[in-house]
Amino acid sequence: MHFLRNLIILFLICIAIKINLCVPTIPSSLKTLPIDGHFDFKQVHHAAKDFGNRYSFLPSAVLHPKSASDIATTVKHIWEMGPGSHLTVAARGHGHSLQGQAQAHRGVVINMESLQGPKMKVHTGNFPYVDVSGSELWINILHETLKHGLAPKSWTDYLHLTVGGTLSNAGISGQAFRHGPQISNVHQLEVVTGKGEVVNCSEKQNSDLFYSVLGGLGQFGIITQARISLEPAPKMVKWIRVLYTDFATFAKDQEMLISGESTFDYIEGFVIINRTGLVNNWRSSFNSNDSAQASHFKSDGRTLFCLELAKYFNPEEMAIVNQEIMTSLSQLNHIPSTLFQSQVPYIEFLDRVHISEIKLRSKGLWEVPHPWLNLLIPRSNIHIFAQQVFGNILTNTSNGPILIYPVNKSKWDNRTSVVLPEEDVFYLVAFLSSAAPSSTGSDGLEHILNQNKRILELCQIDGLAVKQYLPHYSTNGEWRSHFGPQWEAFVHRKSTYDPLAILAPGQRIFQKAAPLSL
Ligand code: FAD
């Protein structure tokens, strides 16, 4: 038994160091599988695209499943072909990956959006939750749960992403400081493993699989159902922005706010470098009722740090909420004349990025290359990082927003697969750049990629103990170093749930069918 396990682990490690044995071919047997959905062998180009717009690997087939059983039948069939087949399977949620993570070079892409699981079901009561398909978009969950006066607790900034896609990473936004990421707010999953088994898992049942899959980069199973924790939904949101010129003061205030229980419901922040306007790109959806004083504030090209806060409320609580906000704001040390406030319906606040998506799409600026870089930085190193990067490596923020906000590690579960910095508080710093197609200037892809490289080199040279979020690497050594002491456990989990490395080949951790170099 031990010998067999060791053999499988050795096999996985061989795959991980990219011994590319042979070119996969799609067997005709797929065509005769007893499924309710169907395979498409011709219209496959869509599955070779993603939001990142930089990587394109053509699959040999796209499965449009109708049920979890269609997915299980397909994966089981490939599993039964054994290691010789080299066929891989990628679940594609909404295709909002950045570097081909939901693609499968000459493999099978599962178009999760055609999955027709049981209807979304909201359970009310003291501990409300909703049962959803792994292919469900978060925006649809919001609409459905609001009918019951409820909503999930933890979000991403953009809601047109699938449950399976964000739970495979973490799902982080301004609520994470209090509720943890989305992977901290899941009770139960139904998963199709790399052997084609359909398994229910939770903290109590098949718990190792449950925690493997959460933050597992799609490596251990395809999420077909999830049970998500809910809370009473507010009707309205007070949406506030204040500005700082000094990073240390900004970070101190952010950290003070995330350590308090009754401050705000959402805490984020962003950096503004060398801009005459105060906001850019999709964060311009903020429509503030600026005071006369604030609208006269001029950034004059200085580097500014914008603290973004939200407080949920119902109209009848308005007076008390205003009082609470005043008390919380009085403890901050922002530039006094830069208090921007707005009041919007809860749904509008949560779906704010979509408003900008519509605008960008209309100008043809949504489907451009997105060389994003997301980093998790320990609190003790955030000052040196900020000093070296903002205004130094980066001399403007005209290519897209840079988000920066701290979260509490205590709200994350260390049994999941996600890789985090070691400290109790760490910052998410997200460089969300858009590249101008075919530009060779400072808004071009090459320039932005070079900046990203310099930022990563700085982290390496200065030993900042940074971890990538939505990680992307091209060598086995880089993946090992990303996982650090968690690497062995990750490989072990892989050998248990997907021993032939069939799933999520686009992550390029255990590569079977992707080309050796890009
Ligand atoms: P896909 O890109 O389709 O898939 C992502 C990975 O998950 C792939 O490896 C895929 O194989 C796997 N996968 C997909 N479905 C399943 C499934 N059902 N079971 C198992 N594995 C599966 N992230 C945040 O945390 N916070 C944010 O605020 C945030 N904002 C974003 C804003 C925008 C505009 C965009 C484009 C992305 C944002 N993201 C954010 C990142 C986002 O969470 C990831 O890109 C996510 O992977 C996209 O989800 P998707 O449903 O499109 O997944």
TrEMBL record:
User: Can you name this protein?
Assistant: cytokinin dehydrogenase
Q: Which PANTHER family match?
A: CYTOKININ DEHYDROGENASE 6, GULONOLACTONE OXIDASE
* Keyword Glycoprotein belongs to the record: yes
* Membrane-spanning ranges: none
Q: Which Pfam families match?
A: Cytokin-bind (PF09265), FAD_binding_4 (PF01565)
> What Gene Ontology molecular function terms does this protein carry?
cytokinin dehydrogenase activity; FAD binding
Organism the protein comes from:
Gossypium stocksii
Tell me the GO BP annotations in alphabetical order.
Answer: cytokinin metabolic process
Co-factor(s): FAD
Enumerate the UniProt keywords alphabetically. FAD, Flavoprotein, Glycoprotein, Oxidoreductase, Signal
Has the keyword Signal been applied to this entry?
Answer: yes
The positions making up the signal sequence are 1-22
Q: Which reactions is this enzyme annotated as catalysing?
A: N(6)-dimethylallyladenine + A + H2O = 3-methyl-2-butenal + adenine + AH2
Q: What is its EC number?
A: 1.5.99.12
Q: Which family does it belong to?
A: Belongs to the oxygen-dependent FAD-linked oxidoreductase family.
* SUPFAM superfamilies reported in the protein's UniProt record: FAD-binding/transporter-associated domain-like (SSF56176), FAD-linked oxidases, C-terminal domain (SSF55103)
> FAD-binding PCMH-type domain: which residues?
55-233
